[in-house]
UniProtKB/TrEMBL annotation:
It comes from the Bacteria. Pathway: Cofactor biosynthesis; thiamine diphosphate biosynthesis. The keyword Cytoplasm does not apply. It comes from Flavobacterium cucumis. Pfam families: TMP-TENI. The keyword Acyltransferase does not apply. This is Thiamine-phosphate pyrophosphorylase. Keywords: Thiamine biosynthesis.
Length: 195
């Protein structure tokens, strides 16, 4: 199970991030689209060095080298302009896609790809699926890259999602739009780990 940060700064964010890692979170995607490079660097420096191997940067990729972060995420637009071979010590860790056809056609070696939105988004109003991804996932031909469901994932639909063609789930609104993100993570992780 993967967590993506809230796009905006939230109160006690670093404390929550540390607690999530202490509870065993494997990967935290740092997605702050409106952060300047200085704001991003400041945020990253507040996260303990011991957790850098579990961070995946969505923007300001140039910070990765100096901060010893070796996992990068690429949007659809960025994916079309990246070199075929990654820089030394940097992995093209993940990417975003919106159709199973795009997933099947991935040209780079990504560990996983987010397909979204699977359900109506919790964090983005009016962001709903345009296709029935559960029907289309039956057309999957790419088994080199893990397929991760994103968008509207909750404790109530994790089981259904994992039983119907997805390798993993990513959480954003479910975690950050609740009173106790760590407790919610533990609940969702328990469901996801039962598969």
């Amino acid at each position: 199970m993967i967590i993506i940060t809230n796009p905006f700064a939230i109160s006690n964010e670093i404390k929550i991030i540390h607690s999530l890692f202490e509870e065993g979170l494997s990967f935290l995607h740092i997605r702050k689209p409106d952060f300047s490079e200085a704001e991003m660097e400041s945020l990253l420096l507040k996260i303990g060095l011991e957790y850098y191997n579990r961070l995946v940067l969505h923007s300001h990729h140039q910070l990765a080298k100096n901060l010893d972060i070796n996992q990068l995420h690429f949007s659809e637009k960025e994916r079309n302009s990246i070199p075929v071979k990654p820089l030394k010590s940097i992995k093209y860790h993940s990417t975003s896609i919106h159709t199973i056809d795009n997933f099947n056609a991935l040209k780079h070696s990504f560990e996983y790809a987010f397909l979204s939105p699977i359900f109506p988004s919790i964090s983005k109003p009016n962001y709903t699926p345009k296709n029935n991804h559960f029907e289309r996932v039956k057309e999957r031909s790419n088994f080199d890259t893990r397929l991760v469901a994103l968008g509207g994932i909750t404790a109530e639909n994790i089981q259904y999602t994992l039983e119907n063609g997805f390798d993993d789930v990513a959480l954003l609104g479910t975690i950050w739009n609740c009173k106790n993100p760590v407790k919610k993570y533990i609940k969702c992780r328990k469901i996801a780990q039962s598969f």
